Amino acid sequence: MSKSDWQSCYRQMHEALESVFHAHLLALASYRFAEAAQLFCVYHKQLNLHIELEDTLVIPVFKRAEPLKYWPASTFLAEHQKIQKLASSYESKLHHQPGLDLRDHLLALLEEARRLQHLIEHHHLREDRALFPVTAQFVHPREASHLLGESEAKWDSLQREHGSLIADMKATVERHWQRLLT
Ligand SMILES: [Fe+2]
Ligand SMILES: [Fe+2]
User: Fold this and answer.
1) How far apart are CA 84 and CA 60, in angstroms?
2) Angle at the Cα of 144 (from 143 to 148), degrees rounded to 5?
3) What CATH fold (topology level) applies to the domain 5-181?
4) Which of 43, 101, 176, 181 could form a disulfide with 20 if both were Cys (CB 3.0 to 4.6 A apart)?
């Protein structure tokens, strides 16, 4: 196994996360609040697992590079906390709209969703440019194999649990958009 295999695995997780978030936004923008909430619920579970895997498997190896003046690991750990806090706050608002005008509610959600998306996009970019390549320099081949095996096992298990729900929700939202666009 090459040392880069686990990096591809993590980059694929980023792509999968972005795809579910995109579907969530499309559901939200077309007033499909039930589907939007379900998609975000799954997205949030995926996001939390992805962060847990990075915190426990990737960052401990990345820390070996700290004496060489790369970015401190605390940067990534703090960003994870910030992302999780914003994601939790956002999810709680998806379910809570007593007395709110639907238009105001939708605009407020879209604004907060954009903030979360922006934060995560920049975070993923930093991981692609610094966290993953630097960790790859300091990981031993046997550790890389363990890193890939454990990451894939946990991620694939969550995907099996929610894969069909994601596919159904995406198809429902797409059918809805097709009706809106014709
Ligand atoms: Fe991360
Ligand atoms: Fe990541």
Assistant:
1) 20
2) 115
3) Four Helix Bundle (Hemerythrin (Met), subunit A) (1.20.120)
4) 43
**Separation of 98 CA from ligand 1 center, angstroms?**
34
Query: What distance in angstroms lies between residue 104's CA and the mean position of ligand 2's atoms?
Result: 32
Those residues whose beta carbon sits under 5 angstroms from the ion ligand 1 are 54
Tally Cβ neighbours within 10 Å of residue 47. 21
pLDDT tens track for 4-18: 688 999 999 999 999
Q: Separation of 41 CA from ligand 1 center, angstroms?
A: 18
Contact in structure between 161 and 89 (CB atoms under 8 Å): no
pTM (2 d.p.): 0.92
* Ligand 2 center to 127 CA (angstroms): 6
The tens digit of pLDDT for each residue in 120-174 reads 999 999 999 999 999 999 999 889 999 999 999 999 999 999 999 999 999 999 9
Domain boundaries, the chain: 5-181
Task: Render pLDDT for 27-65 as a digit per residue (tens, 0 to 9).
Answer: 999 988 899 999 999 999 999 999 999 999 999 999 988
